[in-house]
Amino acid sequence: MKIFIKSIDRGIWNAIVNGPYILAYVVNGIYVAKSFDELTDVENKHVQYDCVAKNIITSALNLDEFFRVSQCISAKEMWDIFEVTHEGTTDVKRARKHALIQEY
Predict the structure, then answer these.
(1) pLDDT tens track for 56-71
(2) Which of 6, 29, 35, 65 has the fewest CB neighbours in a 10 Å radius?
(3) What's the CA gap between 32 and 84, in Å, rounded?
(4) Can you give the residue range of the structural domain that contains 74?
(5) Which residues are within 8 A (CB) of 72 and not within 5 positions of it... i.e. 6 or more apart?
(6) Distance (Å, rounded) from C-alpha 75 to C-alpha 17?
(7) Whole-structure pTM value
């Protein structure tokens, strides 16, 4: 999946790894998100990466996997759920590795 997404556009993979591109400006010390009308073409492309990433990910899922991530807000959130579900956390990976080494 990683290779496929990077082959389409590395910006999409960046949206998955780092989260969605959020544009904001400061008004009186408060961050205010830019409206769609205020975005330049380049900024709009960056914002669109997260939508494309979510579309690619959900297109590759079976129904059970889809329901697992259907309520996620961003592609990063989806990807993080899949990492934990299918690979485990770093602690789980480390424990598996040690168990296999001891078994060997």
Answers:
(1) 999 999 999 999 999 9
(2) 29
(3) 33
(4) 2-103
(5) 54, 78, 81
(6) 8
(7) 0.74
- Let me know: does 53 contact 46? Beta carbons within 8 Å: no
Tokens of 51: 């939508």
Q: Tell me the residue type at 9.
A: D
Distance CA 23, CA 8 (A): 23
CB atoms within 10 A of CB 17: 11
Pairwise CA distance, residues 60 & 70, whole Å? 13
The domain total for the chain is 1
How far apart are alpha carbons 92 and 25 in whole angstroms? 40
Confidence grade of residue 23 (pLDDT, cut at 50, 70, 90): confident
pLDDT digits (tens, 9 = 90+) for 75-88: 999 999 988 887 76
Task: Tell me the residue ranges of DSSP E strands in 6-52.
Answer: 24-27, 30-33
